[in-house]
Amino acid sequence: MNDTAAREMFLLKLGEVVLKGLNRRSFEDKLLSNVRRRVRNCGKFNVYSRQSTIYVEPLEAECDLEGAYAACRQVFGVIAVARAMPCEKSKEAVLAAAKTYLGDALRQAKSFKVETKRADKRFPMTSIQLSQWVGGELHDAFPHLSVDVHSPDLTVYVEIRENAAYVHAPAESGAGGLPIGMGGTAVSLLSGGIDSPVSSYMMAKRGCQLEMVHFISPPYTSDAARDKVLELARLLTPWTGRLVVHLVPFTHIQEEIRRGCPEEYFTLIMRRFMMRIAQQVARRVGAHALVTGESLGQVASQTMQALAVTEDAVSLPILRPVIGMDKEEIVQIARKIGTFDTSILPYEDCCTVFTPRHPRTRPTVEEVREVEAALDVDALVAEAMAESSWVRIKYEDGRRITG
């Protein structure tokens, strides 16, 4: 790492957090904690907040700046991330930093402009004056450039802040949303499909700390199918941080449903059991909601009537962030967050075990309750919970800790 790169740092711009009122400080503190945890594995960084911006400064030459930069862009609560060069608060130092730090970009561009933000009003020049002076000097130093204030190839940003001046190119988009931990804890039902990882991501973006539940049905589902779901959880950790996946055996429940209930109700009653078990997990971990990847009308168990039947089995709220999205919209998000290619791997899923040929699409709560009365619901739920296990997947290195 050369001397210039050794001083490079990141400016993280806050998004929705700045709109908070009296509790804004708690959101900022949580966001700072999340950023520190995410960059910790990339070396020693000084992470602090000033004037609606989080500063991430490397403290040693060995810091992995590329890794830290990628991590910062995936922290919910951050709307944009700029790689910046700090310098003294003088026009000469700003010009020198721009020439050195952005020299390659300036040589490659055909047009440019300078945009200044003067947060420190004690600085003797106005924003416009500094932009004009730096722009004129850069034009002299790079005579091939033309000035274009409307749509330049490169914008040189100058920020005059409390501790220093900062020079950077345009910022890259961040994850947006709210800091994880500020939206409470929810239990997300994670299958091997496309929708449930996307719904988990979307609730994490609203600040939810997530615990995951996955149902396994050996011998109808394989270890490879289970590992696929654990891989999906690992792919989510750059966004969510570490995750715990609760693995719940579901074979006995499904066999009892097949033995005691009409075929057309199999999926509905299976979903009711999944909700009950997820609610038990939620109570165990102190969560206050369930999350599913249901999308209205996508399959037979996701009609309005079927969703009402599912909700009847639990008292916790069920959050359905993709309920109004079509499949292509969900796929686009899956590609963005990196789960799509794993989701489409052709491994079996417990939801496809004993699928009815003609599922009931317009059930009533009363008729499903009556059909379900043939089963010892409480005993089956208790048995599944007693035989459940868990896997903790750490964001830092992808390791799995089981128990």
UniProtKB/TrEMBL annotation:
GO molecular function: ATP binding; CCA tRNA nucleotidyltransferase activity; tRNA binding; tRNA-uracil-4 sulfurtransferase activity
Primary subcellular site in the record, as a coarse category: cytoplasm
UniProt-listed GO biological process terms: thiamine biosynthetic process; thiamine diphosphate biosynthetic process; thiazole biosynthetic process; tRNA 4-thiouridine biosynthesis
Classification via InterPro entries: Rossmann-like_a/b/a_fold, ThiI_AANH, ThiI_fer, ThiI_N, THUMP_dom, THUMP_ThiI, tRNA_STrfase, tRNA_sulfurtransferase_ThiI
Source taxon at top rank: Bacteria
Top EC category: transferase
One Pfam family this sequence matches: ThiI
This protein's record includes keyword Manganese: no
Pathway(s) where this gene product acts: Cofactor biosynthesis; thiamine diphosphate biosynthesis
E.C. numbers: 2.8.1.4
Keyword Ribonucleoprotein: no
GO cellular component terms given for this protein: cytosol
Reaction(s) catalysed by this chain's protein: [ThiI sulfur-carrier protein]-S-sulfanyl-L-cysteine + a uridine in tRNA + 2 reduced [2Fe-2S]-[ferredoxin] + ATP + H(+) = [ThiI sulfur-carrier protein]-L-cysteine + a 4-thiouridine in tRNA + 2 oxidized [2Fe-2S]-[ferredoxin] + AMP + diphosphate; [ThiS sulfur-carrier protein]-C-terminal Gly-Gly-AMP + S-sulfanyl-L-cysteinyl-[cysteine desulfurase] + AH2 = [ThiS sulfur-carrier protein]-C-terminal-Gly-aminoethanethioate + L-cysteinyl-[cysteine desulfurase] + A + AMP + 2 H(+)
Residues in THUMP domain copies: 66-171
Positions contributing to ATP binding: L189, L190, H214, F215, R271, G293, Q302
Transmembrane segments: none
Keyword tags: ATP-binding, Cytoplasm, Nucleotide-binding, RNA-binding, Thiamine biosynthesis, Transferase, tRNA-binding
Subcellular location field: Cytoplasm
Record-linked NCBIfam families: tRNA uracil 4-sulfurtransferase ThiI (TIGR00342)
Family in the record: Belongs to the ThiI family.
Function: Catalyzes the ATP-dependent transfer of a sulfur to tRNA to produce 4-thiouridine in position 8 of tRNAs, which functions as a near-UV photosensor. Also catalyzes the transfer of sulfur to the sulfur carrier protein ThiS, forming ThiS-thiocarboxylate. This is a step in the synthesis of thiazole, in the thiamine biosynthesis pathway. The sulfur is donated as persulfide by IscS.
Stored PANTHER family: TRNA SULFURTRANSFERASE
Protein name per the record: Probable tRNA sulfurtransferase
Organism encoding this protein: Oscillibacter hominis
